[in-house]
Amino acid sequence: MFVLLLLAGALLGGYIVLTQTLFKRSKCKGNAGMAGKTVIITGGNTGIGKATALHLARKGARVILACRNRDKAEAAIADIQQETGSTDVLYMQLDLASLKSVRCFAETFLKTESRLDLLINNAGLVADGRTEDGFGIQFGVNHLGHFLLTCQLLDRLKEAGGGRVITLSSMAHRWGHIDFEALMVNKHLGTGSYSWQFFQAYCSSKLCNVLFTHELAKRLKGTNVTCYSVHPGIVKTELSRHVSLWQMLFIEPVARLLFLDTEAGAQTTLHCALQEGIEPLSGRYFTCCTAQEVSARARDDAVARKLWEISERFSGLS
């Protein structure tokens, strides 16, 4: 009996520690007005993106869901409209695995929308394979597509005054590594038949997100646009939909017990969108609604600059 009580106590203690560290919840307290402002959210039809869209729509923003799947986007819009009463939520087609699609989206947006106040680079995946342009899917979708999208919309963000770019990264960036020689030759951050191999590539793509934000902030100095990278927490989303069945059998019970729901996962994104006075923290990495330090690799000026230059070349901007 004593052994069982000891085991139960250890399990309870472990659960409490985990919920206060890896799975800690936070709450956005920012309350900037959003009426009359326009927001783009990539992957806004599900998960953290949808939870973010719902909150911003409730605050009166014009919310554009930039998504690949029209049916899922329209279903999400119907849900958001029903919950918020907003009639200012719309879908625009965007496939981040296609640089042509990114350019078409930007061209259409710039022709049809007069302002942009907030760009939330939210979409992401864990998978293996290649994009339409031959890049590793995680490098192409998680980083390169968002890089090109941001660059093409920066002028419109500057026009609005006080625009912000928020890019969802992950604590997984700490395990990332970028081999630039291999990237130039193979156009991917890693690949292989085993899921741990493309999970490593996922970590590296999240490192790209932090480095991109770090370099973007430097290039935005002297403008009225700021940028932030975000770890949303460990959230139960569709991110792991491409993992194997046996991994899903392991992940699902843990996810049900410990992972944050999407509303909790949206809080740090919302903090960076709505908190006033964080402009001096442009380029920083946020988690639990607080700016946090990153690894030395993730704030290396030379690496961030080299990634930017290669991304310009790959995306046709140079």
Strand and helix layout:
Layout: H1 2-20, E1 38-42, H2 47-58, E2 62-67, H3 70-84, E3 89-93, H4 99-112, E4 118-121, H5 137-160, E5 164-168, H6 180-186, H7 195-219, E6 226-231, H8 245-258, H9 262-265, H10 267-274, E7 285-287, E8 290-292, H11 301-315
Parallel strand pairs: 1-2, 1-4, 2-3, 4-5, 5-6, 6-7
Antiparallel strand pairs: 7-8
Structural commentary:
The chain has 318 residues and is of the alpha/beta class. Helices cover 49% and strands 12% of the residues. The protein is built from eleven helices and eight strands. An eight-stranded mixed beta sheet has the order 3-2-1-4-5-6-7-8, sandwiched between helices. Helix 4 runs parallel beside helix 5. Residues 2-6, 8-21 and 249-258 have low confidence and may be disordered.
